[in-house]
Amino acid sequence: MLKSSDLATNIHRLSTVLGRVADCTLQDSCGFGVSQFKILWMLHIHKEGVLQATIANWLSQTEAAISRQIGLLEQEGLIEKRVDPKNRRNHIIVLSNKGSKLAGNAMDSLQKEYKPYFGVLTEAEQIELNRMLEKVFFTVATNLHKEGK
Questions:
Q1: Is 31 helix (H, G, I), strand (E, B) or coil?
Q2: How does DSSP assign 82-124, residue by residue?
Q3: Burial of 23 by CB count in 10 Å (0-12 exposed, 13-18 middle, 19+ buried)?
Q4: The model's pTM
Q5: Which of 140, 98, 96 is CA-nearest to residue 149?
Q6: 20-26 — which CB contacts under 8 Å span 24+ positions?
């Protein structure tokens, strides 16, 4: 019987390897790494924009780390800061048109790079693996949130 520690170790190992592949792919094709891509992709999904603190929370990073990444993305013209109409002291971070296009191109590059790796699984297996990983992820994330971590 597979121990949960073995399963977690394999997930960590796979995550590390895929992270390295993603970082190299993104640096070569787009000129930025995984950290900036995560922010761009989050903003791509949440087109209405999000607060910097929300990005930090979702990505489990400090606001200072996210602030540095946002500064770099803003210098490149990939994101914009807008005053939050609900609280004028806050800024909502949104993708610029250039950032939206680049986020899409970056995801296309990643999907192309990952295809041979996940091609060892049938489409049905990929769908099931994705479903199971999301189930575990949301369980962990929910528990951590309840515990205030």
A1: coil
A2: EEETTEEEEEEEEE-HHHHHHHHHHHHHHHHHHHHHHTTS-HH
A3: middle
A4: 0.82
A5: 140
A6: 21/113, 21/114, 21/117, 22/110, 22/113, 25/109, 25/110, 25/113, 26/106, 26/109, 26/110
Question: Rounded CA gap, 112 and 38, in Å?
Answer: 17
Cβ of 99: how many Cβ atoms within 10 Å?
A: 22
Residue 118 burial by CB count (10 A; 0-12/13-18/19+): exposed, middle or buried? middle
Instruction: Tell me, rounded to whole angstroms, the distance of Cα 36 from its chain centroid.
Output: 8
Q: Do residues 121 and 129 lie in contact, with contact meaning Cβ atoms separated by under 8 Å? A: yes
Joined tokens for residue 12: 């960590």
Q: List per-residue pLDDT tens for the chain, 149 residues long.
A: 667 678 889 999 999 999 999 999 999 999 999 999 999 999 999 999 999 989 998 888 898 999 999 999 999 999 999 988 888 888 899 999 999 999 999 999 999 999 999 999 999 999 999 999 999 988 987 887 677 66
- Three-class DSSP category at 72: helix
Collapsed DSSP state (helix, strand, coil) of residue 81 = strand
